[in-house]
Amino acid sequence: MLKCKQCGADLGFKNVYRVFDLGLERVGVFCQEHAEETERGLKEKRFVEEYNGSKIYSRDGKYFPYWDCQYFFDNIEDTRKRIDSPHIAIVDKQAVKLFLGE
């Protein structure tokens, strides 16, 4: 059985939450309370700036135009250009899940 990485609580299919860092690197599995806390801490740690309503994050010298992004840029200027590109959609992972009925 899976256990929360932080508190050791038993996790099942309905109460297991996977937390991912930038670049979709897996951090671990947590209960809901600790998953939210861990992700919030990661976002605060990686946050660089807010640009045109989008939060930019950085890790290891790589800049990500939003959380859960699978690609990155080597500098913040290119990240801003990506955000300014109106023909490219930024899709929220939760919205896709809602749309697909998961």
In words, what does this structure look like?
The radius of gyration is 15 Å and the shape is globular. The two termini are 23 Å apart. The chain has one domain (2-100). The protein contains 3 helices and 7 strands, in the order ββββαβββαα. It has helices at 32-46, 76-84, 93-100; strands at 2-3, 10-11, 17-20, 26-30, 47-51, 54-59, 62-64.
Strand order of the largest sheet: 5-6-7
Number of strand segments: 7
- The multimeric state of the shown protein is single chain
- Biggest sheet, open or closed, and with what strands and sense? 3 strands, antiparallel
Total domain count: 1
H/E element order: EEEEHEEEHH
- Low-confidence stretches are none
Helix content: 25-40%
Summarize the topology.
Elements: E1 2-3, E2 10-11, E3 17-20, E4 26-30, H1 32-46, E5 47-51, E6 54-59, E7 62-64, H2 76-84, H3 93-100
Antiparallel strand pairs: 1-2, 3-4, 5-6, 6-7
Q: Which keywords apply here?
A:
three-stranded antiparallel beta sheet, 3 helices, single chain, 102 residues
In short:
The protein has 102 residues and is an alpha+beta fold. The protein has helices at residues 32-46, 76-84, 93-100; strands at 2-3, 10-11, 17-20, 26-30, 47-51, 54-59, 62-64.
